[in-house]
Amino acid sequence: MRTEELVKYDREHLLHSLAPVRANMGFVIESADGVWLTDTKGNKYMDLAAQAINVNLGHNRKDIIETAKQQMEKLVFTMMLRGFSNLPSIQLGQKLATILPPGLDHYLFTHSGAETCDAAFRVANLYWKTKGTRKYKLISLNMSYHGTSRGVATATNLGRGMIEEMPPSPGHIHIPNYYCYRCPFEKTYPSCGIQCARFLEYVIENEGKDSVAAFIAEPEQGASGFIAPPPEYFPIVQEICRKHDVLLIIDEVMTGFCRTGRMFAIEHWDVMPDMMCMSKGMVSGYLPFGALAVSGEIFETLAGSYFPVGSTQSGNPICCAIGVKCIDIYQQERIVEHVANLGAMARTRMETEFMALPHVGVVDGLGLMLAVEVVTTKESKGKPNTRISDRLQRLGVEHGAMVRVSGNRLGYSPPLTITESESNRGLDILYSVLKSLTPQDLKPE
Q1: What are 186-196's pLDDT values in tens digits?
Q2: For residue 328, what are the domain limits?
Q3: SS3 call for 107
Q4: Are 110 and 313 in contact, with CB atoms under 8 Å apart?
Q5: What is the tens place of the pLDDT at every residue in 50-108?
Q6: Does 161 map to a domain?
Q7: Is there a domain that residue 66 lies in?
Q8: Which residues touch 163 (CB under 8 Å, ≥6 apart)?
Q9: Residue 169 has pLDDT above 80, yes or no
Q10: Is residue 67 part of a domain?
Q11: CA-CA distance, 13 to 1, in Å (whole number)?
Q12: CB 118 within 8 A of CB 196
């Protein structure tokens, strides 16, 4: 079929999440290698978004593909329901224990980030039920993203109203996020006293700590545009959760597996969560997969009780084998150090070259999860019209790249295996995209 026919079929028959129905970009990707994508016409695009920030180790790695082939030749599928086991799932659990914060060495395997977060909420409720209380309320941040499935959509606060097709689930509470550039408390860091973190205690006390089950947060907000917290934020949050007997759930679905220059982003602040949600980079996008890690305290409390969480494909042996292989690559190729170095170089370029543009307001993020915010003027911090998101995305394509766009924020999150020369080329593209914006593009609503 010709590209035009493929695009037409796509528009008339396929549903694309987080996009208007019948919308598509007008081209079809056919193959990929490393940091490059090729469409059905032979056009190449640099992948500066690692797709959904999940292809951490690059496209079409033969060693990962070979691992999947070898596992398929031995065992394609057995279930983990009702106590059954398979060898790769145990091997993955043992491998995860070597890289996760100490104590997070009990696992539930899942299919996606959304399913993992949903499982975390259910585990939190089961934990408190087993301990003889019915704490059920869940606190998350404004501008958060924990998935769009029914069980977690209410915890997701980004795009409120857009993702709701029915009344929200009860028991979900949202509090202001750590957004220093646009502080919800209208304060300035560091004289703010990190009020965004301390407000959590106010909410727990007013809701009643006997009703609050858990607090969930991303260590760097991803879908809202790569917003990083002040360094004091998570240590304060951890102290509050411990004081009020509230479980701390860290959503590392996007930030985990070296993305921020640490194996897990929470390691930047020496914080120990009760549960950690993982997906995306865990298998580098080669298959759908995820995992929930829980503390020994949670595991031992639940020991012997019926566990109704999980589904048919939980612990798929092919996915588990790929997960083991990816962790080996992260360690053997020293991806953490590579990302820390390239991320520092990229941030320096963005803080000098990009910030010199009159419509770039701030550089944000950690490692290779960086972003700039496009504004009408630096002084006003005004937001351009809502069409800016689509405009940035299409300018990226015109300049030969798939870019990460969140509202008026342009991100930089390439595969973590990107070379220094490729990274500089990618940053050149982002700079050209920003330079191409016109006064009409920046005009407010």
Answers
A1: 999 999 999 99
A2: 75-332
A3: strand
A4: no
A5: 999 999 999 999 999 999 999 999 999 998 889 999 999 999 999 999 999 999 999 99
A6: yes
A7: no
A8: 148, 153, 156
A9: no
A10: no
A11: 16
A12: no
